[in-house]
Amino acid sequence: MTTLVDYDDAIARFDPVLGIEVHVELGTATKMFDDAPAHFGAQPNSAVTPVSLGLPGALPVVNGTAVEYAIRIGLALNCQIAETCRFARKNYFYPDVPKNFQTSQYDEPIAFEGYLDVELEDGEVFRVEIERAHMEEDAGKNTHVGGSGRIHGAEYSLVDYNRAGIPLVEIVTKPITGVGARAPEVARAYVSALRDIFRTLGVSEARMERGNVRADVNLSLRATPDAPLGTRTETKNVNSFRSIERAVRYEVSRQAAVLDAGQSVVQETRHFHEDTGSTSSGRVKSDADDYRYFPEPDLVPLAPPREWVEEIRASLPELPALRRRRLVTEWGYSEEEMRDVVNAGALDLIEATVAAGAAPAAARKWWMGELSRTAKTSGVELADLDVTPQHVAELQALVDSGRVNDKLARQVLEGVLAGEGAPEDVVTARGLEVVSDDGPLLEVIDATLAEQPDIAEKIRSGNLGPMGVIIGAVMKATRGQADAGRVRELVQERLS
Amino acid sequence: MTDLTRLTAADLAERLRSGEVTSVEATQAHLDRIAAVDGPVHAFLHINSEEALATAADVDARRAAGEDLHELAGVPIAVKDVVVTKDQVTTAGSKILDGWIPPYDATLVEKLRAAGMPILGKTNMDEFAMGSSTEHSAYGPTRNPWDLDRIPGGSGGGSAAAVAAYEAPLAIGTDTGGSIRQPAAVTGTVGVKPTYGSVSRYGLIALASSLDQAGPCSRTVLDSALLHDVIGGHDPRDSTSLPEPAPSYADAARAGATGDLTGVRVGVVRELGGEGYQPGVRASFEASLDHLRAAGAEVVEVSCPSFSAALAAYYLILPSEASSNLAKFDGMRFGLRVEPAEGPVTAERVMAATRGAGFGPEVKRRIILGTYALSAGYYDAYYGSAQKVRTLIQRDFAAAFEAADVLVSPTAPTTAFRFGEKVDDPMAMYLNDVATIPANLAGIPGLSLPSGLSDDGLPVGFQVLAPARADERLYRVGAALETRLLAAAGGAGVLADAPELETLTDTTEAAR
Amino acid sequence: MSTINADEVARLAALARIDLTPEETDRLAGDLDVIVQSVATVSEVAGDDVPATSHPIPLTNVLRDDVVGQTLPLEDILAQAPQAEDGQFAVPQILGEEQ
């Protein structure tokens, strides 16, 4: 059993340095180097051509849309876009790599030297320096059969090359220093911010659970921030935000224990285990990792014309961080309110609600109040509730026009959530409208006053204290459909 | 009746057009010839009678129906076994691909099929095109029709020998360092390596991606030009394919056939001659220069000093790229799979056992050399430096083409050598390509045509080089020289001096 | 320049995934040593100011439209596989790891 040092204790004595490599599968129609579809069904080896199967004689041709997506990502990460760049071959033998080399960018990435400002939950902002973003291709998938089902016990493997050749962009950070105890949060927030950017840019569905976005987390410890970088480990394919945090925490605790024992951290890849939250030793980096990179002779250099790059830059959608900043101003939310909105995943919903006519404050009240509670109770995401921003805007309009009061509005919402239709439909079907015709209301008021002559007298003599009793009784008699303000006015008129 | 196998492709095409002969007759005649002589010559690895005759019959029917057909429709052709052919075995001369049936056609094969050219079969070659003699074929060597004890050149010895032995009027070769031109030289035939990118590489089993180029093999310059017109042109499936449309090379050859080269400057490359070149080869070369002068060409000397490093650069670039290109042959997805004799059966060990058993000695030698040249710590000294030499060679060519419209040299330093003479001495074997390699390093086109016989009675090749994208100059100058040589020889080509091959007595029976 | 001995050949053969017999290893060590000595001159020919040429004909920006084309029929590709199962390529157990 691996000994671990308590996280807080480890952080008190060591300075963690992060490095994160994120692979994102691009949402192109075809693969990186051939016209096989990049989206496929369950049938293995159904989406392959001679190129993606690495057959003798086949040749690669670069997918122009994948290049455009890579440039979009580079620009969104404030990178420089290479004047000229190339693909190289990374040579290594592995059954899921059909050519036994991966075509990737090596010393000449398409984008380099950028940064991303990452906001943590408490509003603190960390700048993560980006070293490079480069294009490459994915490998196929092995299924291990027989034995215990794990790699080492398997008798043989089945290989499906559908995924081989899917375009990837790999984004590599420079060493992320100065994060201290917040290393796990920063790692998580960085990958989360990237995921949002990929979606905003429309370059990938960016679904972590489907492996569209995969993170490799490098971590090392050093005694002090002035000390040289320590030996790092690379925990591969950590594929959920929570796992990223856990993997970082675990490695901090584990490496601290190794160092405490007077041993050195082994430079190796490690595997993260969801069930235990731990990592285990994988492949040790060694001299045998001689990938014999050389420029891919079957592909010609890429020199993205500057006009094209500027065209892409001009067409970039507003990025998540900028959008938040703009909306804070436009909506008049406090920083704290905005952070809560973002963390609750309500930003898009509120924006759509405002677009449908609701005031920003009202939209926030609904989504962060009643609807957040409902979502929490039913254990679903806000966006998955059976209510649309249009519904919420309509509901608020009913309130604003005085046709329903707050209490009725909540009942209307209940109806909408129960699938009874749009707010207007619920109002009609449930007969929830505020009674605004004075005639019937006056009848109820007169009856109520007649039942309670003592109180009526007190009010008439100028003592407004018991007014609430009358209003309450009227509201009760009208099953809440009366407008309380109007009831008050009418009572005063009657008794003046 | 005319022996259809002795006709040039252009003549045969004319007779097919006129209806004098049918494609089935022409195809059958060549299949019969193969049956009669290919036992000892061994130019073919796979013969494709059924499909070739079906294509021929289809062309005949379409012609009878009045369809507008390609100029070479119905003319049969042989294809080097390094070019993938759908539903037909393709081995690249290697055991590791024994019996492999590709699920797709190379682009150039699609073009041959579209032109209606029956494919007679696949020709022998050094394994994965590594060699200059076909002695490195896993399926036994091809023999030179001029002397069965001698090599037919390589790697495309099969294609050259098939054409020289009248087994096919045309063949497809590939040329990475001379594999079309050197076999043409030693078999008395014509071979052209087009400008890099002129013919699509899609479907060529890659040896060295930045050097490989497919091209025509034939008995006349015009025939090569006609075939180049069929297989050339832009291919969106090859990123290195030239984007611009090509002119008609046949027209260039026809223009050259007048024998007039007035105003053409011919540069003799000082470094590609002299020491190391057989006296008979030099004599034949000098005689050809006289013919060119007589045709009105101005012959000048040019110098390309960096060529001295070409061989070294080539033997670093080729093995490096080959070591990576040949990594896919691992017994996992196609081809041979061999399990290790002992110990656990893992993917890693099966790959190594398969490659150990499936590759021949020359392939192993070059893969190991390439692995070395690319490995960490050596890259800059070897691969990186070789790429710089390439730049110097391009600069030499650029300067030489300022002074001359085409450059010329003997194609190979010697005539055909005997089997076994160089097979155990890799450096001696590699020196065969000294005159052909610079063109591949620079991407420029080169043609070899027979200029006569050496004092040993064997054919000599004359090489013409042109600037990149100026392939038409090869055909014009080559055809002019060919015309002058034919006239001087009283109308008989060099091949007329080749001894007749012994044939099986009942050729018709043997073919059936 | 370094020399290539049998140990170096064995290292390279492992990297290139080729089983060699001891005789082949010794033979290749001799061959390669001669070849490497002969080709080593390249590093002396070109100075630092000479750019490298990776492609003989300079082309740039050869890009493909993102349009789906024809895929291979499953039976065609598996027919040539040394071993296949459930529409997939069957390969021996994999001990190493993905890179």
UniProtKB/TrEMBL annotation, chain C:
<dbReference type="GO" id="GO:0050567">
    <property type="term" value="F:glutaminyl-tRNA synthase (glutamine-hydrolyzing) activity"/>
</dbReference>
<dbReference type="Pfam" id="PF02686">
    <property type="entry name" value="GatC"/>
</dbReference>
<dbReference type="GO" id="GO:0005524">
    <property type="term" value="F:ATP binding"/>
</dbReference>
<dbReference type="GO" id="GO:0006450">
    <property type="term" value="P:regulation of translational fidelity"/>
</dbReference>
<dbReference type="InterPro" id="IPR003837">
    <property type="entry name" value="GatC"/>
</dbReference>
<dbReference type="GO" id="GO:0016740">
    <property type="term" value="F:transferase activity"/>
</dbReference>
<comment type="subunit">
    <text>Heterotrimer of A, B and C subunits.</text>
</comment>
<keyword id="KW-0808">Transferase</keyword>
<keyword id="KW-0547">Nucleotide-binding</keyword>
<comment type="similarity">
    <text>Belongs to the GatC family.</text>
</comment>
<keyword id="KW-0436">Ligase</keyword>
<protein>
    <recommendedName>
        <fullName>Aspartyl/glutamyl-tRNA(Asn/Gln) amidotransferase subunit C</fullName>
        <ecNumber>6.3.5.-</ecNumber>
    </recommendedName>
</protein>
<keyword id="KW-0067">ATP-binding</keyword>
<comment type="function">
    <text>Allows the formation of correctly charged Asn-tRNA(Asn) or Gln-tRNA(Gln) through the transamidation of misacylated Asp-tRNA(Asn) or Glu-tRNA(Gln) in organisms which lack either or both of asparaginyl-tRNA or glutaminyl-tRNA synthetases. The reaction takes place in the presence of glutamine and ATP through an activated phospho-Asp-tRNA(Asn) or phospho-Glu-tRNA(Gln).</text>
</comment>
<dbReference type="InterPro" id="IPR036113">
    <property type="entry name" value="Asp/Glu-ADT_sf_sub_c"/>
</dbReference>
<keyword id="KW-0648">Protein biosynthesis</keyword>
<dbReference type="GO" id="GO:0070681">
    <property type="term" value="P:glutaminyl-tRNAGln biosynthesis via transamidation"/>
</dbReference>
<dbReference type="GO" id="GO:0006412">
    <property type="term" value="P:translation"/>
</dbReference>
